[in-house]
Structure formats: C-alpha cells, structure tokens
Amino acid sequence: MPDWQKLVRQRLRGIALDEDDAAQVVEELADHLEEDYQYSLATGAPEQLAIRRALRHVHDWHGLKSQIESSRKKELPMTKRVSQFWFPAFLTLLLAMASSCLFRPSAPNRGSLLPGEDRHAWRLSPWSIFAGS
Amino acid sequence: MIASGIKRGTAELAVLSVLESGALHGYEIARRIEQQTKGSLRFTLAALYPMLYRLEKQRWIRGTWETSPSGRRRRCYRLTAAGKKNLAPLRSEWSELFAALHRLAGVSNA
Predict the structure, then answer these.
(1) Are A5 and A27 in contact (CB under 8 A)?
(2) pLDDT in tens, B53-81
(3) Partner A contacted by B11 (CB < 8 A)
(4) Are B75 and A24 within 8 A, CB to CB?
(5) Which chain A residues in 71-100 lie under 8 Å from chain B, judged by CB atoms?
(6) What was the ipTM of the complex prediction?
(7) At what angle do helices A19-42 and A4-11 cross, to 10 degrees?
(8) How far is CA B85 from CA B6, B59, B62, in A?
(9) How many helices (H) and strands (E) are present in chain B, helices listed first?
(10) N- or C-end of chain B: fewer Cβ atoms within 10 A?
C-alpha cells in the first residue's frame, strides 16, 4: 500500500500554512486518498488501478496548494478590525475637525479657556491646533 | 464567471444539504453526494477540500478531529447554526433558478 501521507506531504511541500495546520491538511487529504484506494480494492480493482484511481483526484497539485492556502489562511484579528473600522474612525476625525472649525466662531470668548491666556490656549486642547487657534 | 459561480453554488448546496443529516468526514461527504445523486454529482478531493475549508472559514460548517472505535482519526464536519440559517435561502435561490430555467428552456426542476 502506498504511503499516502508521504505522497501528499511531498506534493504539498512548501504550503504557506503554519506547521500544525499543514500537518492536519496532509493527514486529512491522505486519509481521503487512502479511503478511495481501499474502496477500489474492495470493489475488485487490482492494486495499480486502485492507486491510479486515487491519484486521479488531483490533476494539479500546485493549484490545489494555492486553493487550500487561500481558503485556510487565517485573518489576523487586528487586520480585520482595521479593515472594518479605519473608515468610520477617519470620518469621525474629519467631522470633529470640521465641527471644531464651524462652531468656534460663534462661541463666546473663543479661544479664551483661561482669562488672559488666549495665545496659549492651544496647549490645553489638541483640537484647537486644527481649529486655527 | 457565471459558470464557476453556478458550479460553486451547487457544490455548496450539495455539501450543506448532506451535512444537514449529521456529521460526516470528507470522504463520506463525497460518497454521500455521489450516492444520493446516483453518480450525477461527483466530488474529487481537489474540488471538495478547498470548499470545505472555505465553508469552515465562513463558519457555516465546523470541523473537529474525532477518533473512531477502531482508533482511526478523522476530521468530521458539522453544519453550524449559521450554516443552517444560510441553507434555507440558498435552497430557495436554486429552486427559483431551476423554475426559471424550466419556464425558459424546459429544464426540469431538481
């Protein structure tokens, strides 16, 4: 009987998955090929034909490797979070800057957070930098 | 593009449908589909596993390693709650498609 695990490991050599994940894929695919091989033998096929039938499952191991890589690759939690929240966060920042600019002129005693310290008010509020204090 | 989309859609429907009856490992999934469709649908290993992994990533199915009484370790797949939830609209979409094809070209409903 062929060593199916060895065969699959060789064909998927260099797969871009972590070691444990790659080992699980090899074990699972090898198990599938072995089952198919055993089924062929049980239904009366000679060994060489059973092997050929099992191997017919994959014509393009390189293509299978790429498909497995893309379907099993885990997304980093931070990457996903960033992809979901960068735009709302950026929009919030823009709105905050815009509203700061818009509402300051109508505010009484603008820029004067402390009496007599108008010129240094920007130090007390980072938003004041953008509001042009 | 349409052809590959249709192919993928039918394959997903087939896999989710057989898993509705209970947990199965990859080879059993392929055999079950082949038997239930009387050989009309056949899955090679190359077609089956990337799809199983994709469905697992989408959390429609969940795979766990189990050891049989004979000591053989296998990865069994189960339909998740999300998978069950998505199976119903998938069925109705395909049913609509077959009905439309039937009206258009006399293609029988599945």
Answers:
(1) yes
(2) 999 999 999 999 999 888 889 999 999 99
(3) no
(4) yes
(5) 71-72
(6) 0.83
(7) 130
(8) 20, 11, 14
(9) 4, 3
(10) N
